[in-house]
Amino acid sequence: MTDNQGARHAGWKFDNSYARLPAFFYSRLDPTPVRSPQLAVLNVPLAASLGLDAQALRSEEGAAVLAGNRLPEGAEPLAQAYAGHQFGHFTMLGDGRALLLGEQITPSGERFDIQLKGAGVTPYSRQGDGRAALGPMLREYIISEAMHALGIPTTRSLAVVATGEPVYRETALPGAVLARVASSHVRVGTFQYAAAWGAPEALKQLADYTLRRHYPEADEDGNRYLALLRGAIRRQAELVAKWQLVGFVHGVMNTDNMALSGETIDYGPCAFIDAYDPETVFSSIDVHGRYAYGRQPYIAAWNLARFAETLLPLLDDDRNRAVELAEEELAAFGEWFRRHWLAGMRAKLGLSNEEPEDEHLAEELLGLMKEHKADYTNTFRALTRGKPEETALHGTEAFARWLERWRARASRQPEAETVSRQRMLGHNPAVIPRNHRVEEALDAAVNRGDYRVMERLLAALSRPYAHTPEQEEYTAPPEPSERPYRTFCGT
Ligand code: AMP
Ligand code: MG
User: How high is the mean pLDDT of the chain?
Assistant: First the structure.
């Protein structure tokens, strides 16, 4: 089989529903070819679940496709148009360096966007070069796959291809293209774009499209657009609760980075907390802490209010009634969030039944962690291992009292201790993508061409709840010299 046939038979099977929306929603264009595509990393299990042949993707032709140099059969590349509130300021955006190749239909009949990030300039690039650097694309690959393994809805990473071309940021960096896989790339910002600049019909088309694609259960007879708002609110509440439970800081929760699918999207300045502190900010540009760890639920609610505003014309012909309906739904966000968060906290504490004081018990532990700058992941891990003496809280009277209350509380549940321990193992990860380990892997890959460090890290991250002895080395928090950790935009 020649290379050419290899790619053709890689298993691409596109059906491009987004391209069937009115041209208002996108600009059609092909990726800009790159000099010499070299596959850096390929997600073999993900390829298989998409119905793609990893062997074929590894071929020269396969890498050319993943770099955008060659189009697979059935692809209809386009840049999506969208707007967004960036740090509170409304602006026109759009895919400035990403192109949607098409929607892959998997062997089980699911539909996933295949998007090339770093594929060249588009009509929405503004001053940008349309390209991406290798380090940040590998970083997105690592963290998105870690999130997936943690059980958190997320876009995924199929491959990173080095382009053989430099990109110019503060210095010259090796360029790359990331093949991103998503349930869709419809964002709150897509609705904002339609509401701001579209004909009234455009908004309705987008809403109907999103309902069909992501909320097929919405009632045909009832107020479908209210069902869309409700569904989006519930999914975001659950998503952000999951972020909080693992200590994930998204870092750039602009409305263009909130997906209607309910998946985590856009891994720019994100990072995981080590020492517990709600005020944690990693992004160098987030100087006011708008997107701090502890503010994420509020920001999600703020973004959803922007989403609700776009839907008003569809909710009711009477504007006042529409506002009333939207406000009712938005008011429920807090309770949805709290419910998911508390359920997760109970699981982390090994509790199967509910008592009114549980929230207080969890909050108290977090308060102690904050006071003693305890590592969030490792505190729960130590409790899971039945080794509270391994936490930074050990030796304090307050923690001794807390432990006593927790044990008394745990004894008031029907589950046996072994079952409870099992529950804790399944909800308290041993391994998260710790910043210093991610940096170490990126340094080896980008600066020395050594991908083994990253492969080992990826392997550990793929089973975060396994708690194996080999994972032990990935549980160490950063040295003081590695703090405070900073992430940078302009990737
Ligand atoms: P992000 O911060 O990744 O959500 O990106 C915000 C906006 O900037 C989006 O419209 C991106 O497409 C655009 N953008 C980011 N980097 C580049 C780049 N290198 N070239 C062109 N557009 C970019
Ligand atoms: Mg974005």
Answer: 96
**Residues designated as active site:** 256
Pocket test for ligand 1, best of 32, 89, 97, 177 (most atoms within 8 A of CB): 97
Distance set, CA 109 to CA 50, 148, 263 (Å): 10, 20, 19
Domain ranges of the chain: 3-182, 186-491
Instruction: Dump the DSSP string for 245-268.
Output: HHTEE-S---GGG-BTT--B---S
CA of 130 to the centre of ligand 2 (A): 13
Query: Are 339 and 239 a contacting pair, CB within 8 Å?
Result: no
Q: What is the number of the ligand 1 atom nearest to the C-alpha of 98?
A: 12
Residues facing 159 on adjacent strands: 42, 179
Task: Residue 386: name the closest of 361, 421, 410 by CA.
Answer: 421
Cα–Cα dist 89/302, whole Å: 13
Point out the ligand nearest to the CA of residue 268: 1
Which residues form the pocket of ligand 1, taking CB atoms under 6 Å from any ligand atom? 93-97, 124-125, 128-131, 252, 256-257, 266, 268, 489
Task: Please give the pLDDT value at position 2.
Answer: 43
Query: Which ligand is nearest the CA of 118, by number?
Result: 1
Handedness of CA 26, 29, 32, 33 (dihedral sign): positive
244-257 confidence digits (pLDDT tens): 999 999 999 999 99
Residues 6+ apart with CB under 8 A from 482: 435, 436
Q: Which residues contact 19 (CB under 8 A, 6 or more apart)?
A: 26, 28, 76, 78, 102
Ligand 2 centre from 80 Cα, in Å? 11
Q: Which atom of ligand 1 is nearest to the CA of 167?
A: 19
Q: Which residue's CA is minimally distant from atom 11 of ligand 1?
A: 96
Rounded to the nearest angstrom, the distance between the alpha carbon of 369 and the centre of ligand 1 is 36
Query: Do the Cβ atoms of 117 and 167 come closer than 8 Å?
Result: no
Residue 435 CA, chain-centre distance (Å), reads 16
Provide the Cα torsion 461, 467, 470, 474; round to 10°: 50
Ligand nearest to the CA of 123: 1
- Whole-angstrom CA distances from 277 to 24, 273, 274, 281, 372 are 44, 8, 9, 9, 10
pTM of the predicted structure, to 2 decimals: 0.97
Q: Using an 8 Å Cβ cutoff, are 472 and 381 in contact?
A: no
pLDDT digits (tens, 9 = 90+) for 142-163: 999 999 999 999 999 999 999 9
The protein residue whose alpha carbon is closest to atom 12 in ligand 1 is: 96
